[in-house]
């Protein structure tokens, strides 16, 4: 897979972060994975604010976004991504343990690209991450970049 394609992982739980990174490593996804641990940091990274003003990484190929985040929750992050013309077309995949139907409905109202419930079983999680990576990094045709 093309390692110029960045994955933005927005995850506050260290165990879930480690599990996700381990799953990507196990399936040999070589893309650079940027990890931020709260919603405010995700927005700062995406919009090149504060300590991320001079980031040289390209915009992510896909954003893996947890819902239950400190500072700014995942649904608010998604809302701000969709409202800004610079990021409105970025693929966003909600990766959550929440089974709350209202979260699911609100995410789709905010135009999430996919909603993914984290399986508890490690083998199923790895397989799900493999399929997710294959789709978003290889099969999916992203929108053209704005010039």
Features:
147 residues, Rossmann fold, alpha/beta, five-stranded parallel sheet
Give an account of the 3D structure.
The structure is a single chain. This protein has 147 residues and is an alpha/beta fold. It has one domain (7-139): Rossmann fold (3-Layer(aba) Sandwich), CATH 3.40.50.2300. Helices cover 39% and strands 14% of the residues. It has five helices and five strands. It has helices at residues 14-26, 39-46, 74-83, 101-109, 122-139; strands at residues 7-10, 33-36, 62-65, 92-96, 114-117. Strands 2-1-3-4-5 form a five-stranded parallel beta sheet. Strand 4, helix 4 (101-109) and strand 5 (114-117) form a beta-alpha-beta unit. Helix 1 crosses helix 5 (122-139) and helix 2 (39-46) packs parallel to helix 3 (74-83). The radius of gyration is 14 Å and the shape is globular.
**Main β-sheet, in a few words?**
5 strands, parallel
Secondary-structure element string: EHEHEHEHEH
Q: Which CATH architecture?
A: 3-Layer(aba) Sandwich
CATH topology: Rossmann fold
Helix share bin? 25-40%
The total domain count is: 1
* Total number of strands: 5
CATH class category name: Alpha Beta
Q: Which class best fits the helix and strand makeup?
A: alpha/beta
CATH superfamily: Response regulator
The main sheet orders its strands as: 2-1-3-4-5
Backbone CA Rg: 14 Å
Shape: globular
Oligomer: single chain
Q: What is the overall number of helices? A: 5
Low-confidence stretches: none
Strand content: 5-15%
Arithmetic mean pLDDT = 89
N-to-C CA distance: 24 Å
